[in-house]
Design brief:
Chain lengths: 273, 310
């Protein structure tokens, strides 16, 4: 068995405005960067995409998708008027199960979900749209536990990394998360979009700067305060998970794009591994 | 529809999927050996009565359709599909199929806009109803032979503050009331809410979720809080209830924060008639009660004097 490794790490946004409607030209910078990230990830020849999505919320621990072939049509509960998101992807069952085993061994409550019709979240599907538009790669998807903190997410991420190495996989690990979580509460036109708060904008940039410099330990320490000030998407805990998976607190993240989606902060970041 | 419409009754109608699971209806795929009977019997007490009241529509405000931009209202003639609970998929995988009262939805939308609220009509036929709507609708009317309208929970109480959220819900409640009156509908309202909302962080026994020997309220403090608000409802002490709800929410993380109860009370014009508590029990430690305000003429409450209220 070849040595397994993480071949790429990414932070990506998960709001459907980037893929719906299909011919939309709005938020072009984010879309283009997302596309570039996906192409780079594929160029690294991964066997599997591992995706942690803040829009898949769990309450009793974490959940990992173990349906062999999730298939269906997803309609976002907020943005249903933008269109539907049909999906049909394969799960890397072996990696999913090993991740669950290792997470449980590390003391986490992590459970498989294998049910027809189990809701697949928008973030996962937006990510797949850019990272695997031809539906070629198997996927391992996992939820974001609303109560979990830094330690748990680091452990879950580490379990992913360990499982990848144990099984000899080449995996791209993707944290699908927004940055600042304040948004417009009234209808806006696409061309009116901007980060709603100056504080949000400044704090997003500060966080991205730390990440770009590879000061990820500092970024993690700053994350709770950042989350408080900006209402960051799920307290930005997806970032902990990503660092756990990358197994590094000094990985440098290249910011491919940063901008607003409906007032909230969004960035595409690629980590050198 | 002829004549002025009216609200015939309003219910606090909690939505733990465990209740459907315990009942084993044909629509739900998982099977159980029962469980949570006291709450299920509480709903049982309401089902025949609702049928007898011959409502045209059941309006449900649900916390599990959380919307960021305004208040959303289902507005497609029929919604059908498989709803799998994202938290308890082993308990709830339900094939739903329901008519939506689109005229009613339009009327609520128009009145909500008239109140200065942001509102949207949900017109996507592939939309999957949330489990809050489905569990509440099923428990009140398992035959699904009365059209429904589902209203989303705008997240203003969480995004801004509880006070802002309550104001929004009072407006939406007034809008709903006017819409019902103008549309000529006989409407049942349902606030799909749990009371105290602290819960176990793991299922006591995932292989036997209906093991009632493991079910209990989260704490005595939460229990006392639930009893306090239920007692105020039973005695029709509406002003005191409204005053204490924010403190209750704060102390017990009550799900009523999401707005449904405030919406329903405003729509019913803050009734001071005694509410009937049909039953109370915990579900995975949260406090749940089925509570009815009967505003029908038959109950002698059809002409309750309207009160000026914010
Ligand atoms: Fe709930």
């Amino acid at each position: 068995m070849p040595d397994g490794q993480i071949v790429g790490g990414y932070i990506v946004p998960g709001l459907p405005h980037l893929v719906l409607p299909r011919d939309s030209t709005s938020r072009a910078e984010l879309r283009n960067a997302f596309r570039t990230a996906g192409a780079n990830a594929r160029a690294a020849r991964p066997d599997v995409l591992v995706i942690f999505s803040t829009q898949w919320i769990s309450v009793l621990g974490h959940l990992v998708q173990t349906r062999p072939n999730p298939k269906g049509v997803h309609v976002d509960e907020n943005w249903y008027d933008l269109g539907d998101l049909p999906y049909d992807f394969r799960t890397d069952l072996e990696l999913a199960r090993r991740t669950i085993e290792l997470s449980n061994a590390a003391g986490l409550q992590v459970r498989p979900v294998d049910y027809e019709g189990f809701p697949v979240d928008t973030g996962m599907l937006v990510t797949l749209d850019f990272f695997d538009p031809k539906h070629e790669l198997p996927v391992v998807g996992m939820s974001c536990n609303i109560y979990a903190g830094r330690d748990e997410e680091l452990k879950l991420g580490k379990a992913v990394g360990d499982a990848v190495r144990a099984l000899g996989r080449r995996a791209a690990v993707i944290a699908c998360t927004g940055l600042s979580g304040h948004w417009f509460t009234k209808d806006i036109k696409d061309n009116e979009d901007r980060i709603v708060g100056d504080v949000d904008d400044a704090e997003n940039r500060r966080m991205l700067d730390l990440i770009a410099q590879g000061k990820c330990a500092t970024a993690m320490d700053a994350a709770p305060d950042y989350a408080r000030k900006t209402g960051a998407d799920m307290q930005f805990k997806a970032f902990y998970w990503l660092l756990g998976a990358l197994g590094s607190e000094t990985a440098k993240g290249k910011v491919l794009a940063y901008g607003p989606i409906w007032g909230s902060g969004a960035a595409v970041v690629e980590f050198a591994v | 529809m002829a004549g002025k419409g009216k609200i015939v009754s309003g219910y606090i109608a909690p939505h733990p999927p465990h209740l459907v699971y315990g009942e084993n209806p044909p629509q739900n795929i998982p099977r159980s050996t029962g469980g949570w009977e006291v709450l299920r019997w509480a709903y049982d007490n309401c089902r025949a009565k609702i049928k007898a009241q011959k409502p045209d529509v059941i309006l449900i405000h649900t916390p599990h359709w959380m919307t960021l931009v305004g208040h959303h209202i289902t507005r497609v003639p029929r919604l059908k599909g498989l709803s799998v609970d994202p938290i308890f998929p082993h308990l709830f995988r339900y094939n739903f199929d329901t008519a939506i009262d689109c005229e009613m939805a339009d009327a609520i939308y128009d009145e909500a806009i008239g109140e200065g609220l942001t509102a949207r009509k949900m017109t996507n036929p592939n939309f999957r109803l949330d489990y809050g709507t489905i569990v509440t609708a099923h428990m009140l009317n398992p035959d699904w032979d009365i059209p429904i309208v589902s209203l989303s929970a705008n997240n203003s109480p969480y995004y801004f503050s509880l006070g802002v959220g309550i104001e929004e819900m009072f407006k939406l409640g007034r809008a709903t009331r006017r819409a019902i009156e103008k549309s000529g509908r006989r409407a049942v309202l349902a606030a799909s809410n749990t009371l105290s909302h602290f819960h176990f962080d793991r299922e006591p026994d995932p292989s036997l979720p209906e093991d009632m020997s493991k079910e209990h309220v989260f704490s005595h403090t939460n229990y006392l809080w639930d009893m306090r608000v239920l007692q105020l409802m039973r005695e029709g002490r509406m002003d005191e209830l409204l005053k204490v709800l924010p403190e209750f929410i704060d102390a017990t993380s009550a799900e009523v924060k999401s707005g449904g109860l405030f919406w329903m009370l405003a729509a019913m014009d803050f009734p001071t008639i005694p509410a009937k508590v049909h039953g109370y029990w915990s579900v995975i430690a949260t406090g749940n009660a089925v509570v009815e305000w009967d505003l029908s003429d038959a109950a002698g409450n059809g002409h309750q004097e309207m009160r000026a209220h914010a």
